[in-house]
Amino acid sequence: MMVTELYDALRSAGAPEGKARAAAQAMSEESLATKTDIARLERELLVLKWMNGTAVAGVVSLLLKSFLG
Question: Which of 33, 34, 23 is CA-nearest to residue 4?
Answer without folding.
Answer: 23
